[in-house]
Amino acid sequence: FKHVGKVYGVAPRNADRIINTYLDRPRNTGVLLHGEKGSGKTMLARLLGMKMGELGYPTIVVNAPFKGDGFNKFIQTIDQPALVLFDEFEKIYHNRGDNEGSQEKLLTLFDGIYLGKKLFVLTCNDMYRIDNFMRNRPGRIYYSISYKGLDIEFIREYCEDILNEKKHVESVCKISALFTDFNFDMLSALCEEMNRYGDTPEQALALLNAKPENSNNAHYD
Asked: What is the DSSP string of 104-119?
């Protein structure tokens, strides 16, 4: 994995913490990254892959619904420490009761019943499509990181780098709080429009396809 440009926000700190925990624990470690698209899940997953690569450990990307004892034993036979990445997990593995790729068939893999030392990273957009037996179970999934839009540190740092008029940085931060989930697409488009026309954030948002009232069918008085 390679990043283009600067990595913003808390992603570098989170990546260092996850890897430090993984290296310190004697068994498998699971990480669930869940929340809005464009909020940083994939960025953190790629950063983890890069850092693991620097340590000499490979990343295995699972993009088909492999499951059952055969798959679990196969992962076990890889005795080298590795990151196993399930991107968009809930789209590949359906929830309990589904015959095709059901999540419950991976529980024993995450439980650590199979010996090994893997860093399992799962990304998903919809937490409610994750099996109940994975939630609040640190023995299976040690970390659960929620992404409800960009954090304010990310937004401020990005604006300081990108905006021509730095005086608008705090205004963008305040406006982002009006959105239920303020994602990177919104932030980059807003900064682009402000730089192009010298707009204030309010002027740019008047025309952009980014409106607080469109967030998750929220109602405003």
From this structure: GGGHHHHHT-S---EE
Q: Which amino acid is at 65?
A: P
DSSP structure class, residue 126: -
Tell me how far apart the alpha carbons of residues 168 and 40 are, in angstroms, rounded to a whole number. 23
Nearest Cα to Cα of residue 94 among 106, 109, 83: 106
End-to-end CA distance of the chain: 45
Number of residues that make up the chain = 221
Q: How far apart are CA 126 and CA 45, in angstroms?
A: 17
Higher pLDDT, 87 or 3: 87
- Distance, in Å, from the CA atom of 95 to the CA atom of 80, rounded to the nearest integer, reads 30
Backbone φ and ψ of 181, nearest 5°? -140, 100
Gap between the Cα atoms of 65 and 68, Å rounded = 10
Instruction: List 119's β-bridge partners, or say none.
Output: 29, 83
pTM recorded for the entire structure: 0.80
pLDDT in tens, 23-56: 999 889 999 999 877 778 888 999 999 999 999 9
CB atoms within 10 A of CB 27: 13
Nearby residues of 134 by Cβ (< 8 Å), 6 or more positions away: 32, 103, 107, 110, 140, 141
